[in-house]
Design a protein that fits this description.
8 strands, 22% helix, 44% strand, metal-binding, VOC_core, VOC family protein
């Protein structure tokens, strides 16, 4: 199984206030912008590509969303690291054999066709990690 850093999710209070830094200072390109109103997600997303990495800026859509709670508890900044895997089902199976626990209620296909699930931070020494793959068309 290959594990390749796919993107870094960054919690922000305002994408509009944060985006200029990534576009101007880091010379990024805005690749996509969308809203996910799925229960348990509820974020505005801006996808920025720098020369060699992808960053997702994540802004809560309401004060009760999981992202709003994250910012209230931990502040703005890195929310998660996402690793692209060859096959999400196989990666979950292999990790579970090693005792890794998952946040099973986070498993979904996002608005752009990425299958994903978050690992339980108790299994990663506190870091929120996403495994993801992309649905083949």
């Amino acid at each position: 199984m290959n594990y390749v850093l796919d993107h870094v999710g960054i919690a922000v209070r305002s994408i509009d206030d944060t985006l200029p830094f990534y576009l101007t200072v880091l010379k990024g390109t805005l690749e996509d912008r969308y809203t996910s109103d799925a229960p348990g997600v509820e974020v505005h997303v801006a996808v920025v590509r720098t020369e060699d990495k992808v960053i997702e800026l994540l802004e809560p859509t309401n004060k009760n969303s999981p992202m709003a709670r994250f910012i209230k508890q931990r502040g703005k900044g890195v929310h998660h690291l996402a690793y692209r895997v060859d096959n999400l089902d196989d990666a979950i199976y292999e990790a579970r054999k090693e005792g890794v626990r998952f946040l099973d209620d986070t498993r979904r296909v996002n608005a752009r066709g990425r299958r994903l699930i978050y690992l339980n931070p108790a299994s990663t020494n506190g870091t929120l990690i996403e495994f993801c793959d992309y649905v083949k068309s």
